[in-house]
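**User:** You know discrete backbone vocabularies at least as well as I do. Would you mind producing a protein record, from residues through to fold? Write it directly below this note and I will take it from there.

**Assistant:**
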Amino acid sequence: MLMDLQRREEFKQKLHELTPPDGKAISNPTLRESLQSAFPGEQFSLNDYWDLRNSLITDGKLEKGRGRGGSVSRVATEAEPAVPGAGSTPPTVEIAKAVAEASLYEPFQKCIQEGYVPDNDLKPWICEITAFQGRRSTGGVWTRPDVTLIAIQTFVFVPTKQFDVITFEIKPSIETAMEGVYECAAHSAFANRSYLAFPDADAYDTNPLFDRILDECERFGLGLILFGEVANWDTYNFEVSAKRNNPDPRSVNDFIKAQISEKSREEIQRWFR
């Protein structure tokens, strides 16, 4: 028996309700059995289940996970306060670090828009601060670049257009930059180019930590930006150029769907019409 298409939205809603509200994963076989039990008068084929499940994933309400038969988990829609565990950094220290870093995002984004974009002749483009995701599930903290630039670049003698996702991780000091290296490296799963940026200083010439960061950026193919004043593009220095990466298109698509605003997603779709 075919699924009653007039009740499809009802089935979707129930399937979503059957997933754990705390975001824990549930296997596809278990979820499909629960759906069948919820509607004993219906007969859901495997294709019916995939149709409903994939529709919820497209809507941003579920995300895929691992396990036998695969799994899904509910995407959180509201931010919840984190509870620090025993031995964790005191909340006041973490908040201070977050505030110091967050204050750099807006002026950095503006410099990327007014400096990096025209310097690289990118058009069309969109640029967003993607750091502020709360506790909404995006695949983990290291899947959230601070600033994301998505653009198309064309070349006079190359017939195809180049679509690029470019991510930027901004740190307030060299002491916090090493973690940024590995955050940037994680972004290569969905970004074509990834950059780490932090304030410049003359002391880096004799600083072994800077040498280590430089080596790691080159090893991972990451770009390194040093800025004298975060709000002044003229003080930006590209110490290392980012190598172009070719991530899996599905990962790029999932990143855009999860991290980029609806307005910008619609704009990106218009580029290809």
Remarks:
- The helical segments are 8-17, 28-38, 46-58, 91-119, 177-187, 208-220, 249-259, 262-271.
- Residues 102-271 form a domain with the Trna Endonuclease; Chain: A, domain 1 fold (CATH 3.40.1350).
